Amino acid sequence: MKKSTGLKLAGFFLLAVSITLIVLGTAVFPEADTGFPNFAIFAPGFMLIPICFFLIVTGFMPQITKLNANLRKETLDHAGKDLGEAASQTVDVLAPSITKTVGAVKKGMGPQEQIYCKYCGTTIDADSRFCKYCSREQ
Ligand SMILES: [Zn+2]
User: Fold this and answer.
1) Which of 26, 31, 46, 92 has the smallest C-beta neighbourhood within 10 Å, fewest atoms?
2) What is the distance in A from the centroid of ligand 1 to the CA of 108?
3) Residue range 2-25, pLDDT digits in tens
4) Is residue 43 in a domain?
5) Which residues span the domain enclosing 62?
6) How far is the CA of 138 from the centre of ligand 1 (A)?
7) CA 32 – CA 50 distance, rounded (Å)
């Protein structure tokens, strides 16, 4: 027998016991003088209920877990398209700025365009205002 089946059986058995105790305590053996439920029978039955629920819920855990997984799958099936769209939109928004950033980095790191100094003929960066050798303005 599976552990979960045992837990279910124990849970339902205890539930039957607790219901029997509650019915016996209230309907069959009430206090003779007051008519109140017989506390000695009623109370243990009442206190068994949380234990029954714990055992039954634990016993049904495989089914609950399976249901949970199915619900999650259904959620993903249902929202998957939207999630995919959201992801592709994010890429659409991010891609140009990433391209720009990468381009800027490439430009910064790549070889600079070179020109010759008008005065001494040394190669200098195309965008420099002064020659780094003769210091004259270009
Ligand atoms: Zn120069």
Assistant:
1) 92
2) 24
3) 888 999 999 999 999 999 999 988
4) yes
5) 3-107
6) 8
7) 29
